[in-house]
Amino acid sequence: MKLAHFSDVHVTHFPLSGKPALKRLAAVASYTLAGRGRHFAGSDQRIGKLLEDVDAQGVDHALCTGDLTGVSTEAEFERVAELFGPRLQQPARYTVIPGNHDRYVKGAQGLFERHFAALSEGGQFPFVKHLGPQVSVVAIDVARPTNLVDSSGLCGEKQRAALEGLLTDRSLKGRFVILALHYGLLRSEGQRDSRPHGLRDDLELMALIDRDDVTLDLVLHGHMHRPYVVKTKRRTIINAGSATDLHVRQGCGYHVYEIEPASGRVKIERRAWSAGPARYEAVDSPLNRELSTRWE
To answer: How far apart are CA 27 and CA 254, in angstroms?
Structure first.
């Protein structure tokens, strides 16, 4: 099976629309005065080219692990939905989950669901989607609105209990199971993320996924814009990084995975943005590798 995985596309539209919020105003300052806006200049073009390239790879499914927007305004959601176009009504081909920038402020409640419910099983988390006869994705929503100096996420006891029920259900036995979330459980060097930036209940979630009665092969996420591969005690984690952030050192891009469900092997291909021809291309990257997801 071939699976495309992209994240953190951040369509960014100012001036702001929607309810005023201090956090959004601070973001405007960061984007205009501190230079963050240069990271995502022309992101609309790259998102359009990204989706075209994903379709051109002949993948069986495509997964987006959040941060469709910059500050979760109605205008941004409308624009990224416009770029997705007919794909919004193709849940068999696309799955999209929200990131923290899609839950940026309380006033953004319901905007993600309004535009992307069809690609997230109605926005009811956690959910299981069978991508083929042997591969399934289990998705959780760990994003939430936070204050000005906090961008942390939270899975929460209720969702973790529901996730435990899904991952220990006998119906997933014998399948290749992917857990999709926005936040990373570990940084690239293997350490926990910082409290203001990471998942608040990361230890509890890692303890759950590392259990021997859990059916799980691979964890996919975004949030950190530089891509990497890391492992917990038992599980392989892949961060696709940002597909559109021009300041990513290795080049912004996404992954295509070739999955062999029976053996648990995954081959990674990195595809990155090339400004000259204005397209995404396969690149020579240390991320290009074949790995086993099976714990021994």
So the answer is: 25
Report how far residue 49's alpha carbon sits from residue 57's, in angstroms, rounded to the nearest whole number: 12
Least confident of 44-58, 97-111, 168-182, 279-293: 97-111
Domain of 236?
3-292
**Reported confidence tier of residue 35, pLDDT bands at 50, 70, 90:** low
Q: At what angle do helices 43-56 and 74-84 cross, to 10 degrees?
A: 30
Query: Got the DSSP string for 106-133?
Result: GGGTTHHHHHHGGGTGGG-SSEEEE-SS
Number of domains in the chain: 1
Q: What is the CA radius of gyration of the chain?
A: 18
Q: Can you tell me the distance from the alpha carbon of 296 to that of 289, in angstroms, rounded to the nearest whole number? A: 19
pLDDT tier at 96, thresholds 50, 70, 90: very high
Residue 151, token pair as written in the block: 């961008």
The rounded distance, in Å, linking the Cα atoms of 160 and 112 is 22
Residue 144: helix, strand or coil by DSSP?
coil
C-alpha 67: how far from chain center: 7
- What angle in degrees, to the nearest 10, is found between the helix axes of 157-167 and 202-209? 10
* C-alpha distances in Å from residue 113, one per residue of 77, 94, 116, 289: 10, 15, 5, 35
Among residues 66, 97, 128, 135, the alpha carbon closest in space to that of 293 is found at: 135
In terms of DSSP H, where are the helices of the chain?
22-32, 43-56, 74-84, 111-116, 157-167, 202-209
Domain of residue 252, CATH code = 3.60.21.10
